[in-house]
């Protein structure tokens, strides 16, 4: 009997201890929590919304908080471990608005929250927002054009507005946090422009205009690097020979004038650069037929030139750049990068880039293709050729980018990556701050063909901060595909965001055409504003837009969309 009573007492004691143990638990901060008290007051649904200069953090009160005056502590830090706190506030509501300059524009932040002690109830555990956030700031700084930047200066422009009348400084910060502060006078603020000299060449700066500590605009520039030419040519010199005799890494400079290469020129197993001394394509022209990159290590950078495919007066080049193997066109090759910057390119009868000579997918590989600050026109201008402007099917590549450029009068479609690639890296294709008008023919996809074979090619395609207008090519009798893209892979990304488009048709309406819709693309913050352009338009200026036009501040950075050269 005594044994039975002792067993029951022991069992009851252990059971009671287990209940106590289950009822009181220790949080990650070491605070003992009772589920019946403090845990019931833990805030839920912690969320963050941001606008230009404001972050709004809000939450729901805990399940048993009704009728109680509970306060909350909110911490904000640039460090996800919260080893230092950049902003902290005790509030007695279920939300708070934090406005610049309490938070620094462009800086990433993390947030955590807890209910404070009330009565006999201890503070709740911390609730962490699952991701970082940032505010972009007010944006009255106009888009910074390439022509505004030199090796040692930048010209800034901003919207003249009541909110910019009090601007008093510009702050420029390098990547290694060297800060330069330039005062602004009241007259400069009212004028809406300031040229800042004395910058370091080849340096990246974050540029900010401010009133006191309040940010009124933010941008990023990189000053030009001085050119150290290996050799400088004059009109009449043989550029083809200079290319043939150049060695890897050479930079060939061209003084103002016209240069002619009537034959196909090969650049074999070396990476070279060709640049105008003036860095002005209006003063230095190269009339050429075709450039071939051949074999491992072949690459090219071209800058500050007009590239005219009418090389003889009556004959026209077909393709600006072709990628080929060294021993045979389809032989394996790993090319270096291609860069075309600040150039005017026109009158090629087929396309700009052909990278489909490889024997199979990934036989040819290219690190990156970047076209920046260029004007490209009259490429396959009759629309009779079915080859895409950038025909890079089978080419293994990492990055393909066209930015801050204008393209018009183009046949077929933009990009062909229709062959399934085997590389682990997903190729990125980006059109950013680009203006495109009057293009498309031969039933091609206007934007991209990522392949119909199987599940299609896995790509990351983005068309952003740009303008697309007038399809197909306006010569009559031409048509484009009924959808602007072919992206079938379920893992692929297809974005069309922060852009403007208008007059997109499959063919002329009089020829049975119908409106082209952006089916299958992720769309956000787009506009369909008809800017009055036609196939004959050459001036794409947005200067006449009303001050409240969404295109003027419609980009992801709050700037004017399209090629910046037309912004103002």
In short:
The chain is mainly beta and 568 residues long. The chain has four domains: 25-128, Immunoglobulin-like (Sandwich); 146-222, Immunoglobulins (Immunoglobulin-like); 242-349, no CATH class; 364-568, no CATH class. It starts with a helix and ends in a 44-residue tail after the last strand.
Structure description:
The relative contact order is 0.07. The chain is 6% helix and 37% strand. The protein folds into four domains: 25-128, Sandwich (Immunoglobulin-like), CATH 2.60.40; 146-222, Immunoglobulin-like, CATH 2.60.40; 242-349, no CATH class; 364-568, no CATH class. By secondary structure, it is mainly β.
Furnish the topology, listing elements before pairings.
Elements: H1 2-23, E1 25-26, E2 32-33, E3 44-50, E4 54-60, E5 72-77, E6 87-91, E7 95-99, E8 110-115, E9 127-128, E10 154-157, E11 169-174, E12 179-183, H2 186-191, E13 193-196, E14 204-211, E15 214-222, E16 231-233, H3 239-245, E17 251-254, E18 257-268, E19 271-276, E20 284-294, E21 299-303, E22 306-308, E23 319-324, E24 333-335, E25 338-341, E26 344-346, E27 351-354, E28 364-372, E29 375-379, E30 390-391, E31 395-403, E32 406-410, E33 415-416, E34 428-432, E35 435-439, E36 448-449, E37 460-464, E38 467-471, E39 485-486, E40 493-497, E41 500-504, E42 522-524
Parallel strand pairs: 16-17, 17-19, 18-20, 19-21, 20-22, 20-23, 21-25, 22-26, 23-27, 24-28, 25-28, 26-29, 27-30, 28-31, 29-32, 30-33, 31-34, 32-35, 33-36, 34-37, 35-38, 36-39, 37-40, 38-41, 40-42
Antiparallel strand pairs: 1-2, 3-4, 4-7, 5-6, 5-8, 8-9, 10-13, 11-12, 11-14, 14-15
